[in-house]
Amino acid sequence: MAKFSIIIPVYNVEKYLSYCLDSVRAQTYADLEVICVDDGSTDRSSRIVELHAAADPRIRMVSKSNGGVSSAKNAGIREATGDYVLCVDADDALVPEACERLVRAFQESDADVVTFGANCVPSCDGYPWLVDCLSPRDAVYDGFDWKILLEEKSRPFAWRTATTRTFLVDNGIEYNESLPLGEDQAFHFEIYPIARKTAFVSDKLYDYRVVREGSAMRVLFDDLAGRMDKHLDIVEAVFSSWEKRGLIELGPAQLADWSLDFLFLDMRALAPADAQHAFERLKSIYERYLEGSGDPAAGLSAPVAQVYRRVLDGSAQALPRMDLWRYVAARMGRKAYLKGLFMRPVVKVKEAFRRKAGPSKKQLAGWLEGEKERAACDKRLADSLEELLLSNLE
């Protein structure tokens, strides 16, 4: 029987951890090892792991000094002995049949990598882009195809991607510890191009907590300049990894296209001094990693190619408005862009009317249902802790 290794990085997550471990212990697939990596927690997280481990011998804890989430994941991977490996965030949960379904997917597809769907928790905090992102289709790829990275619902959350342990070990794959945020993007860009087979599973096997108090993403959300620096770190890490593995020639144009899609519009929104710094840094990345790969712009659509060339000549910050519109239209698609232009004044009128009229009964009812759902989620967290404590008093 194949063994499944679940790795849970743990750092000051006492409110959520017991519920996460409950979901792992409730798996319908029994042959598991659960490696909780305490990354220097200063709250009661390690004690919660100890209480669960006392009740379930499949759970064990590895303790280390604080080094960040990537460092914790890597420590867990080094300890893993299973055939398959999955890293689960401590504030999230697995659905009961997750591991059973994943083992079946690996065995049926003979894949190195399996990426699956997820639910938003609470569902009221989900939004269209996220729900779509977490809803892959069923598909299997032999070898690498750019559709995996650019068209499938494959990124950016690494917690919904499982791998065989031999694939990680044989290829020396680790999470990038220099990235405090965005290690998921870099991880996916490293594994998909070298996987012998990649499978996508439409089943939603994971409950993703959309908002968590004190999360690093939450803190950075309103800091556009800080977020841009982190995004540039991700792009540089991806390009560097591809250079080391000799993968750049798989698609320099696609790399340029992805990085511009990831960065360009937010860079334009920065304050002038911050934008200048960001564009100069992106230029240096392109010059360092893509200079010897012909002309990547030749493989891009005309509006995107123009932006790429303007980054290289230092004029991207001053892109004329008409050219910017062409770029946005190229990204969105002509029909969606024209529809957006047509609907913009209609949306503004509706918003002005809503502000004047105040929330409708339907809106108030929706808000109330959302608050009830959030309260129910918090109650499940509290109930899990209470049950854990009571079981250890018996």
Give short descriptive properties of this protein.
394 residues; alpha/beta; nine-stranded mixed β-sheet; globular
Question: Overview of this structure, please?
Answer:
- The protein is α/β, with parallel strands linked by helices and 394 residues long.
- It has helices at residues 17-25, 45-55, 69-79, 98-109, 128-133, 146-150, 165-170, 183-191, 216-220, 224-244, 252-268, 272-290, 302-313, 321-332, 334-357, 361-393, and strands spanning 4-10, 32-39, 59-64, 84-87, 93-94, 113-121, 139-142, 161-164, 197-209.
- It is built from 16 helices and nine strands.
- Helix 1 (17-25) runs parallel beside helix 2 and helix 8 (183-191) runs parallel beside helix 10.
- Strands 1, 2, 3, 4, 5, 6, 7, 8 and 9 form a nine-stranded mixed beta sheet that branches.
Report low-confidence residues grouped into runs of 5 or more.
none
Task: Provide a count of the helices.
Answer: 16
**SSE-based structural type:** alpha/beta
Please bin the fraction of helical residues: 40-55%
Query: Mean pLDDT, nearest integer?
Result: 91
End-to-end separation: 34 Å
Biggest sheet character: 9 strands, mixed
Query: Based on DSSP secondary structure assignment, what is the total number of beta strands?
Result: 9
Radius of gyration of CA atoms, rounded to a whole number? 23 Å
Q: How would you spell out the order of helices and strands?
A: EHEHEHEEHEHEHEHHEHHHHHHHH
In terms of DSSP E residues, the strand content is 5-15%
| Anisotropy-based shape | globular
